[in-house]
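QA checklist item 7 of 12: single-chain prediction sanity check.
[x] sequence parsed
[x] length recorded as 60
[x] structure emitted
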Amino acid sequence: MDDLLGGGERTLVWSSPYRRAVQTAEIALQASGASLPVRLDERLRDRELGILDLLTWLGV
């Protein structure tokens, strides 16, 4: 893994599994010239409320 910070520290790139987030991470890495893998973590997903999404308490 590339050592971008010096001093033996490792730099990691974490992303939510959503396509737009992964694409943004890859674009940012390309622009910075860094050669790091993008790691996906399901815990970084947006909250998914299903059919209750955007309803008020009264609507629920």
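[x] summary fact logged: The first helix runs from residue 19 to 32.
[ ] second reviewer sign-off
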